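Before drawing any conclusions, I looked closely at one protein's amino acid sequence and its backbone structure tokens, quoted below without any editing.
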Amino acid sequence: MRLKGVFFIFIWGALTAYYIYTPVPEDIEERWKLMITDCFFRSLSHLADFSELLGLRDYMGVMMFITFAEAVVPVSDERVRVTEEHFDGVEVVLYQPVQQDDSAELRRAVVFIHGGGWCLGSSSHCPLRVNKRYRLAPAHHFPVPFEDVYRVVTHFLRAKVLAQYQVDPGRIAVSGDSAGGNLAAAVAQQLQQDPEQQVVLRAQVLLYPAVQALDLNTPSYRQNKHMPILPRTLMVRFWSEYFSSDKSLYRAMLANAHNGPESASLLKFVDWGTLLPERFHGGYNYTAPLVVSTATPASADSPLRSLGDPRASPLLVPDAALRGLPSAYVLTCEYDVLRDDGVMYAMRLRQAGVDVTHEYYPSGFHGALMFTTWPADFTIAHRMTDNLIRWLQHNL
């Protein structure tokens, strides 16, 4: 009997180790911690697939558990006052430094738009959403690690995060990570093009941003297709669900065969053979994405037309639309499917005369910045936070 118990424990341990283990490059710090962290995301993804297969709940409906699992109730402390507000009908959480006096000094402000693939988190952070299938969580359900970053930004910059009053209108930064970085870039462009807009952004902070949906076979998409946290299949699914719940679009995007005549003229803006420095090619050769002809033109609200909308893909604008944009901080990671999106956008901004700081992390992975608290506390996340704060102190 005892032998059977030992055998069972051995088999259970072996299977658990087999499931947790995933190939992670040697130069990534704290590799086993990343494997264990990714195990949670991977398990939830498998559960979501199974649930959708059985018709119980759609994939993103199950993945929303991440939002609730990481939800945090905003709490003030001795350094930062946290309140929930509504700005023009939009739910936000406002982080303000605790005033030591009654000074009416105008402060810097950082408007942060969190990521989540346009599907997880807040329903109020999408300026363009074709697929309105999901009822998403309130905006105050920020991931716990980012809540920690918000407090650091507020304390060290003596700035407000997500604020619109008692703020110097010339010292505002818009920031976002991943899908939030996509929206932050789009917001910066739209403010620049609005002649009646009184708010002038001082800076844009784009953290591993997704800025184009036309070519999902860039070198970083191929190199990192099985990387933890954000494998290629999940990123493609986020893109497809953003535009439509039609599964045929997901399959087409997986094959990188989703471009129609409507987006053909825009492929020059995602020509990574030209825009990416040679060191990021990784031995891959550029081939233009396939353009699929259709019998009838796409309708005005078709996902095929949305693919080329610059509000969804900020990279797809001419140089004239980039000139005059505020200083940019672009963070990219080597082990991230979105690496090349950020590199190409930084390159195009620089070519358009924008002051760009491109912070590239050779051992970084997608989402690293949010892992600053136990149990998923990564050293690289603290380095990223310190570097970001330092840049904001000098540029905002």
Q: What stands out?
A: Strands lie at 80-87, 90-97, 107-113, 160-161, 167-177, 201-207, 327-335, 356-365, 372-373, 376-377.
